[in-house]
Protein backbone atom coordinates (compact mmCIF):
# COMPACT_ATOMS: atom_id res chain seq x y z
CA UNK A 1 0.00 0.00 0.00
CA UNK A 2 1.24 3.49 -0.81
CA UNK A 3 -0.10 6.67 0.72
CA UNK A 4 0.57 10.06 -0.84
CA UNK A 5 0.29 13.46 0.85
CA UNK A 6 1.14 17.05 -0.02
CA UNK A 7 3.05 18.76 2.78
CA UNK A 8 3.24 22.57 2.80
CA UNK A 9 5.43 24.69 5.05
CA UNK A 10 2.92 27.19 6.45
CA UNK A 11 5.42 28.75 8.85
CA UNK A 12 7.76 31.66 8.39
CA UNK A 13 11.00 29.68 8.46
CA UNK A 14 12.49 26.80 6.46
CA UNK A 15 11.73 23.41 7.99
CA UNK A 16 11.17 19.69 7.56
CA UNK A 17 8.19 17.56 8.50
CA UNK A 18 7.89 13.85 9.07
CA UNK A 19 4.94 11.70 8.16
CA UNK A 20 4.18 8.34 9.74
CA UNK A 21 1.75 5.54 8.96
CA UNK A 22 0.44 3.25 11.69
CA UNK A 23 -1.80 0.20 11.41
CA UNK A 24 -4.27 -1.03 14.01
CA UNK A 25 -4.98 -4.74 13.55
CA UNK A 26 -8.39 -6.29 14.22
CA UNK A 27 -8.91 -8.07 17.52
CA UNK A 28 -8.44 -11.77 17.03
CA UNK A 29 -6.67 -14.85 18.30
CA UNK A 30 -3.25 -13.19 18.53
CA UNK A 31 -2.47 -10.25 20.79
CA UNK A 32 -1.30 -7.16 18.90
CA UNK A 33 -0.31 -3.66 20.03
CA UNK A 34 -2.94 -0.94 19.62
CA UNK A 35 -1.00 0.39 16.62
CA UNK A 36 2.22 -0.54 14.82
CA UNK A 37 4.47 1.74 12.79
CA UNK A 38 4.19 0.60 9.16
CA UNK A 39 6.17 3.31 7.36
CA UNK A 40 7.49 6.85 7.49
CA UNK A 41 8.96 9.61 5.35
CA UNK A 42 10.46 13.06 5.85
CA UNK A 43 10.32 16.07 3.58
CA UNK A 44 13.34 17.88 2.27
CA UNK A 45 14.03 21.28 3.80
CA UNK A 46 11.00 23.31 2.70
CA UNK A 47 11.06 27.08 2.32
CA UNK A 48 8.05 28.99 3.69
CA UNK A 49 5.08 28.32 1.37
CA UNK A 50 6.84 25.46 -0.44
CA UNK A 51 5.01 22.14 -0.94
CA UNK A 52 6.39 18.65 -1.41
CA UNK A 53 4.51 15.46 -2.21
CA UNK A 54 5.66 12.57 -0.01
CA UNK A 55 4.92 8.87 -0.43
CA UNK A 56 4.89 6.33 2.37
CA UNK A 57 4.63 2.71 1.35
CA UNK A 58 4.33 -0.50 3.30
CA UNK A 59 3.50 -4.15 2.81
CA UNK A 60 0.69 -5.32 5.09
CA UNK A 61 2.31 -8.78 5.15
CA UNK A 62 5.17 -7.28 7.17
CA UNK A 63 2.70 -6.79 10.03
CA UNK A 64 1.93 -10.51 10.29
CA UNK A 65 2.33 -12.16 13.71
CA UNK A 66 3.71 -15.57 14.54
CA UNK A 67 1.09 -18.06 15.74
CA UNK A 68 3.03 -20.42 18.03
CA UNK A 69 0.25 -23.01 18.10
CA UNK A 70 0.13 -23.28 14.30
CA UNK A 71 3.82 -22.46 13.69
CA UNK A 72 3.00 -19.92 10.96
CA UNK A 73 2.99 -16.18 10.39
CA UNK A 74 -0.49 -14.86 9.75
CA UNK A 75 -2.67 -11.83 9.25
CA UNK A 76 -6.02 -12.26 10.93
CA UNK A 77 -9.23 -11.52 9.08
CA UNK A 78 -11.01 -8.26 9.70
CA UNK A 79 -10.44 -4.54 9.30
CA UNK A 80 -6.95 -3.05 9.53
CA UNK A 81 -7.21 0.67 10.34
CA UNK A 82 -4.52 2.72 8.59
CA UNK A 83 -3.62 5.87 10.54
CA UNK A 84 -1.60 8.79 9.20
CA UNK A 85 0.06 11.61 11.11
CA UNK A 86 3.26 13.13 12.39
CA UNK A 87 3.71 10.87 15.45
CA UNK A 88 2.26 7.92 17.33
CA UNK A 89 -0.03 10.27 19.29
CA UNK A 90 -0.77 12.75 16.50
CA UNK A 91 -2.46 10.65 13.82
CA UNK A 92 -5.92 9.96 12.47
CA UNK A 93 -7.62 7.12 10.60
CA UNK A 94 -7.22 7.43 6.83
CA UNK A 95 -8.41 4.07 5.51
CA UNK A 96 -9.52 0.58 6.48
CA UNK A 97 -8.10 -2.48 4.72
CA UNK A 98 -10.37 -5.52 5.09
CA UNK A 99 -9.08 -9.07 4.91
CA UNK A 100 -11.94 -11.45 4.31
CA UNK A 101 -10.08 -14.63 5.24
Can you walk me through this structure?
The chain has 101 residues and is an all-beta fold. The chain is built from no helices and eight strands. The protein has strands at 2-8, 18-24, 36-42, 51-57, 65-67, 72-74, 78-85, 91-99. The chain has a four-stranded antiparallel beta sheet, with no helix packed on it. Strands 1-4 form a two-stranded antiparallel ribbon. The two termini are 19 Å apart. The model has no long low-confidence stretch (mean pLDDT 93).
- Proportion in β-strands: over 45%
Order of helices and strands: EEEEEEEE
Query: What separation lies between the terminal Cα atoms?
Result: 19 Å
Q: Residue share in helices?
A: under 10%
- Structural class, by secondary structure, is mainly beta
Shape: elongated
Write the layout of secondary structure elements.
Elements lengths: L1 E7 L9 E7 L11 E7 L8 E7 L7 E3 L4 E3 L3 E8 L5 E9 L2
Antiparallel strand pairs: 1-4, 2-3, 2-7, 5-6, 7-8
Brief rundown of the structure:
The protein contains no helices and eight strands.
List descriptors.
single chain; 101 residues; mainly beta; 4-stranded antiparallel sheet; two-stranded antiparallel ribbon
